[in-house]
């Protein structure tokens, strides 16, 4: 969606909605933009060896100062295996560059891969980080199976996969990544990471855990697990912004895909799902797709579908939709008047809970029976097959199946759900999101409006796409 950080900043200036994004995107590259010294890594030996500004990764990490860059872009070895523990980066701000995420992997063995003890920004570009395994002693918490930072983690064209953080009688925060202040990932993949044995109230984050903000842009968070925690894909205590990204196949006890848990008494705390897909996530307890109690919620041209949960109720008899749930908790627990929800041209479908499965796509977590919703809601041109959110109907057309095809590589950096050729989502949306991007989730050249009007959801059917339908397959159904 955003081809570069500069485009994101320009978009933020054009649209009031994106004002909250401007600081995150523009500040997100500040550390890597000013480098005092470049340290060249010329060997895949993990030992601390080198001279001058040339040597191994551990040598560069030990000698660089704040603002420096560690450059591994000329390496051709494919893998640096860290058999003697994590690479420690004590600098406030430091950048680590590789030759490409398919060309170099930093691989752990019996520890994390990267430990950033600075409180500034760790920027990692063009490489993969994998196979970290953090398992502290009994009663000690585990934070970040592959990457842990006391500040911000910025990722660009990075894969973080197959990492594991586990603790016994201690909290686990971030199977793949832990960042105290925030995480910004663009054109990156966070996949197959595990946070295990975390019964702690603030544990979880199979892929990403942060006490600050999390921003995903043109990225995929998939196949991560928080086995006994919240947020299988991402758990964030600050603002959570998902742009042109896919969150799929993650699992947790609560919030299988996304769990955004910011300050309860602030309308400035935001949850934004823009041109994105949340699909096929699982919660063993409740809310398979995305849960948030933010004060301001924006969902634009997005698809929330095929998420599942074990239940839709808690011990307090609140109802939780398995697709997208917005908590009514906060400064005004009776009417939630400090909250504001805007839904534009989005699809909520095929989300179910329980056995046998019961369809329920979007809702506000309120005591059952729900009664009239007091959460201010605006927007239009949305589809939801099933909901128990009373009062949602003026903003969402319900009891309509959008006929979504399975999640698939339909072009672009992330997977999407294309609608069937007869879908009621086609040409039924609005053009509100075109002010943020002229393209659908897949980016250029996939126009956001191709036809009489924008389609509802993250995917826009392009003129000529119909030739791929053979005319014999039956339209997908909803329960």
Molecular structure report:
With 479 residues, this protein is mainly beta. It has one domain (27-398): Pectate Lyase C-like (3 Solenoid). The chain is built from four helices and 47 strands. The strands form five sheets. The protein has a 24-stranded mixed sheet that branches. Strands 6-9-13-17-21-25-29-33-37-42 form a ten-stranded parallel sheet. A hairpin with a 2-residue loop joins strand 2 (50-51) and strand 3 (54-55). Helix 1 (5-14) runs antiparallel to helix 2 (19-27). The chain is globular, with a radius of gyration of 22 Å.
Give me the secondary-structure category: mainly beta
Q: Which residues sit in consecutive blocks of at least 5 with pLDDT less than 50?
A: 1-25, 27-35, 331-336, 368-372
Tell me the major beta sheet.
Answer: 24 strands, mixed
In terms of DSSP E residues, the strand content is: 35-45%
Please tell me the CATH architecture by its name: 3 Solenoid
What is the rounded Rg?
22 Å
Shape: globular
Number of distinct helices: 4
Number of strands: 47
Descriptors:
single chain, 479 residues, mainly beta, Pectate Lyase C-like, 47 strands, 36% strand
Brief characterization of the structure:
The protein has 479 residues and is mainly β. The protein is 6% helix and 36% strand.
What order do the helices and strands come in, and which of them pair?
Elements: H1 5-14, H2 19-27, H3 30-33, E1 38-41, E2 50-51, E3 54-55, H4 57-63, E4 69-71, E5 79-81, E6 87-89, E7 94-97, E8 105-107, E9 114-116, E10 121-130, E11 133-134, E12 142-143, E13 147-149, E14 152-161, E15 164-166, E16 172-173, E17 177-179, E18 182-186, E19 189-191, E20 194-196, E21 208-210, E22 213-217, E23 220-222, E24 225-230, E25 234-236, E26 240-243, E27 246-248, E28 251-254, E29 258-260, E30 270-274, E31 277-279, E32 282-286, E33 290-292, E34 296-300, E35 303-305, E36 308-309, E37 324-327, E38 340-344, E39 347-349, E40 352-353, E41 358-359, E42 362-365, E43 377-380, E44 382-384, E45 396-398, E46 404-408, E47 416-419
Helix pairs in contact: 1-2
